[in-house]
Amino acid sequence: MVFIQHTACCTALGDARESAESLRAGRVALQLKSVPALEHAEQLPLAYIADETSADRPKWMPYLQQLADTLPDAPWGTARFPIFLTSSNYGIDQLYAFSKDRDPQRLEWSMPHAVTSQLRAAFGWGPQITVLSHACVTGQLGLILAERAIREGQAEAALVFSFDFLSPFVIGGFNALKILNGEMPAPYRDGEVGSIGLGEGAGAVVLSASPSNLKIQQQALFNEMFHFTSNAPDGSGFDRVLEACLPAGDCPKLWVKGHGTGTLEAGALEARSVDARLKGAPLVSWKGSLGHTLGSCAVVELAIAVESLKTGIAPGNVGGAGPYFTDSVAPDAFSLAPYDGALLLSNAFGGAHAAMWISYE
Amino acid sequence: MRRCGLAMNKLYIIKQALWVEPAHNDPEALANLKAEFPGRSARRMTRLGMQMSHVLRGMSMSEACSLVYATSYSETQTIEKFLDSFPFPSPQAFQTSIHPGGVEQFLIQNKQSIHEFFPLAGGPDLLFRALQTALLCTGPRIIICGGEEAGTWLLEAGVSSESNYAWALELSREVAAGEDVLGVLAWSALAGGEGTGELLPDFLTALQNSEPYQYRSADGSELELNWSA
């Protein structure tokens, strides 16, 4: 058995406790903002934590330092205490800036291995760091490998450290794909126009075999590989990851923190798949407020879910009124007392699906 | 086959494939590579995507197998194109610049769904990381693969591979009686991963020539490649 020992995050709404509180109050962090690097783009829904970048130190480092300061003492990055570093963008903001100003200092923070070296130097970590990058399921891949490393006896405890911050590279890319547009996202709303918002996030999770009140029951992956940017239209990818994560037959009473970015097709498929497998389980997404924090979303949203468990109340589906694709979408904060656990979902390009079922006492 | 004398992790090599460019940005090699794909596909694919497709084509890919992909720089040329496209960013360049697009191009073209897919980034210890990740995979067969493409202005800046290559190994924990095995990969639990910068080029040369290979770093990391007789 593997248990969650520690969680922390920061979002545009603050740390995990502050984020959970704000979400419960229905506060939306996303704001329509202009992006100077995109000459003809409309204002876009973005949720920044940090100010603009500088050449000597990326804007995200102070926030990663804050997270590192929350970690329990352990020789992180050594053989028995490995780190799974997860991000979809690492220092791409620095590479973008280098493409404009050719300041070579930026390259020291640009590539994943360069970022890893910088984090090691800053936080005193050892070299046992597995660096993962699989778009928006990256954080969950880290959680899965960390759980397995403990279960297999390779590790005594494992740290999953995750971050994704915004830059013109990412904003421009999603805007070019027309997924990010001038509309505020409304996850699971059965409307005319779909859209996502982008947010910044960082999070840390420590797992070990020492019992805690948060047990990982199961994690699962499924990659459709149907299309780069859309899902198999029959929703089979969403069904397959639930099949792999949940027990056959009757399920315990779960609430569901979905992926729910605000796109129409994926939102409808996810909501219907969850409703079919877990009839009556409340489904929420927090990306209508926080924005999509990309590769960090699984870790960030797990930390907020854990904070919600401490208060016994989960935030509702923040950021957009119905009608929703299914009646199971919970628009308002709700009590967790009736539930035995939570199902946490994330998706990515390529039809990648990841799921995590946790139980709590 | 020589018996590996070290108390190490071990996986059997069932298949291997390599794509190594004879010279830097060799136009004939690229033309030959492109010719392997239908015209419309080749136009949309990245160079790394074509290289990865070339080596993965021969693997016994299935939904049940586990896939580990290791690249430090990923789609360098497409990242360059995307960055150059500002202030009017190209949707096509963005889509194909996203890690792990090099392998996804192969999987999506072949409509090959898969349960476990672990794309790694990282530096000189990437081969060790891929092998350690393979130990945590649950599929009956594990395919580990990697590759890089050389950039242009990113190469000049020192943040790109200097060469174009791709490799793939189909690995198994156990071998059935009578099953053909190409060789054995054995490695120690990674001590530090320091100073492994020259490991991958030498390892790929050994793969290319079907030669045995031994690597021992100062900090205790060990890797041994042996071939069946």
Task: Report on the architecture of this protein.
The complex is a heterodimer of chains A (361) and B (229). By secondary structure, chain A is an alpha/beta fold. Chain A is built from 10 helices and 16 strands. In chain A, the strands form 3 sheets. In chain A, strands 1, 2, 5, 6, 7, 9, 10, 11, 12, 15 and 16 form an 11-stranded mixed β-sheet that branches. The radius of gyration of chain A is 19 Å and the shape is globular. Chain B has 229 residues and is of the alpha+beta class. In chain B, α3 crosses α6.
* Content-based structural category of chain B: alpha+beta
- The total count of strands of chain A amounts to 16
Low-pLDDT segments of chain B: 1-6
Sheet with most strands: strand arrangement of chain B: 3-2-4-5-1-6-8-7
Describe this protein with a few key phrases.
heterodimer; A: 361 residues; alpha/beta; 11-stranded mixed sheet; 3-stranded mixed sheet; 10 helices; globular; B: 229 residues; alpha+beta; 8-stranded mixed sheet; 9 helices; disordered N terminus
Structure summary:
The complex is a heterodimer of chains A (361) and B (229). Chain A is an alpha/beta fold.
